[in-house]
Structures are given as C-alpha cells and as structure tokens.
Amino acid sequence: xxxxxxxxxxxxxxxxxxxxxxxxxxxxxxxxxxxxxxxxxxxxxxxxxxxxxxxxxxxxxxxxxxxxxxxxxxxxxxxxxxxxxxxxxxxxxxxxxxxxxxxxxxxxxxxxxxxxxxxxxxxxxxxxxxxxxxxxxxxxxxxxxxxxxxxxxxxxxxxxxxxxxxxxxxxxxxxxxxxxxxxxxxxxxxxxxxxxxxxxxxxxxxxxxxxxxxxxxxxxxxxxxxxxxxxxxxxxxxxxxxxxxxxxxxxxxxxxxxxxxxxxxxxxxxxxxxxxxxxxxxxxxxxxxxxxxxxxxxxxxxxxxxxxxxxxxxxxxxxxxxxxxxxxxxxxxxxxxxxxxxxxxxxxxxxxxxxxxxxxxxxxxxxxxxxxxxxxxxxxxxxxxxxxxxxxxxxxxxxxxxxxxx
Length: 406
Ligand SMILES: [Zn+2]
Prior knowledge:
15 helices, alpha/beta, 6% strand, binds zinc ion, disordered N terminus, globular, single chain, Rossmann fold
C-alpha cells in the first residue's frame, strides 16, 4: 500500500516513499513530537536525535530520510506539505539546516566527518532543526564512525542525525551507534506499489510500468531506469543471456569481457558529466587564467586542488563501477534463483518473470546441485568485489564457474 497522498494528516512529501505505511506512520508521529518539543507542549516521546533507516538497496532509505527532514522543516502545518519553502528547499538540497552526506569515494574520511559534526552543532538558522542525512552510513570508516558517535552520544538540542544503511547488522553500523538510534525498517516495496509510483510520478504508461516493476527486484530507482532508458534495458538483456549463452569455453572470456566493459561504460556515463562540472566549478573558484601579482602562487595552489579533485573523482568512479557491476550480478543471481524455484515447483514469484521460458529450460537440463553451484559462484564474485579484488579477475573466475560449475 502506498501512503494516501490526499490524507489530511499525512503530508505530500511522503508520496514517493513507496509501500512503507508503517514507517510513514512512525515518522509522522515523530514530527508531531518534534513540534511539541519546539513549542514546549504536548507529548515529545515520539522524537529522538538519531534515526537509522534500514532496508535493502532501492527500498528508498534516503527518500524516506529526506521526506522526514522536510516534515521537520515544514513551516506550513508541520506534516510535510510539500509546498512551503521549508519543504521545497529540503528537496532541492538548498535548505540551510539540512545536510546530505553521500560518501563520494569508498568512504567518508575522518576530517570530513569532524567538519560535518561541527556544522551540525550550530543552532539551526530556521529556528527549527539541524538535520544531517548520511546516505550510506555503512561506508563510514572506523575513524569517521567514531567522530560521528561522539555527536550522536551528546547531541546538540536541535540536531537530528538520519543514518541510512542496508541493515542494522554490526557489519553495516557499529553496535554503539546503533544503540543510540531509533530504527526505521523499510521493506522491499511490492511490484504493485512501484508500478503505481512510476505511473503517477514519472508518467510512465501502465504496461511498461508494470513490466519494469516486476523485474526490478523491488528497487524503485532501477524500475524507473528500466522503464525510461533503452540502454539499461539492453544491458539487463545481455546479462540475462549469459546463463544459456555459455556453450563453449571461449564464451567465458567474451561474457566476462562484456560484463566488465558494460559496467565501465555505464559508470563512465554517470561520472563524466558530474566530473566536468566539478572541475569547471573548481577552476572558476580558483580564478583560472588570471594574470598579475600572486598569479604564480595561485596557479600552484589551483594545480594542487585539481589533483586532489581528480583523486576523489577517480575513487568515486571506482565505487560507481563496482555498484553498477553489482547490479548486474544481482540480476544474474536472480536468474539462477529462478531456475531453483522453477525446478522445486515452488509458487514463489520469479525475479525475472519475463525470462520464465529460459529459467524453465535451464531447470530441465541442469541438476539442482549445479544450479546452486552457479548461484554460489555469483555470490562469491560479489563478495570478492566487496573485498576490492579487481573486477576483471573476479568476473572471469565467476564466469568460468558458471560454465563448468562442479
Ligand atoms: Zn511544508
């Protein structure tokens, strides 16, 4: 079920928090308590200074956190009207008291976290709340997590931390930080609720929206991409050709090469525009092309800053490439799960209902043991990438095992 958009008590900012009625209810109650705290009246027990949004990738952790931030900053009725300056600037990313931290490279540095904690300790300019959203709290380094812990343990009166992570497992968020947070657990949204939001918000026609939602694995952003981007559809199709396409040993290297190159191309597309814009902004800020006194020193400083920016962009590109490759691996794992599901005769919903014919034909010719071995090969590849094994090496090892599983 989607949050009813026209409900007078639930604000419009919740419209894109797909299929999460329980979370919306808790956070709406928290906003009422937050208002009570500011007024010094009523029950404030629903509000706290640190929240942990957990849920699988694509379930909308940051979308929910941002909607909550908007309701906290909403000046009209305090429920997130979506229209007032507080709501609009929160969504536009320009609200003076809302900071969204997205780890750009592989993690957030200690220095960045310290600077952030210092900013968060200021009094809110709006007189309401200082909100800090940390989009991937699971990518904090130990040092950064420690710097954050201090702030979460002794939060300034009007500061709220919203952390987002896949789960509250100690691998994702340290036990000490988790113990200071109230957890909002998001579930995988249903295909129906994703199809509904694609039609309503993105104006995608019903049939395409339903198809994209059905093959997205409950990932809202991925569903939108598949519905609107031909290249994304092509890449998914080429990934799903791999299982039945491995006929000769030579196919192993072609498939591995195609997977790695597709991830590189995809990541490069995502990065290129952003990288160039950042470099332009930096050059403008550094006053490139100036002449006169002090220019030489300024130029040396600018070169140093450019080098630093390039280093960060490279690190971020590596992360993007790994994320893109991981999505392809999730699709691939989904196919082998479908083969197992089909073989066992279980009525479970398929990951790739539009490839049911292929998974059925694989279920007939492969033993369950060999299918399971293939699935394990994909999962092992995901783990290897997480441990920083070079993509090409990890992917070649995986495809070799897909071709000859046991
Ligand atoms: Zn508002």
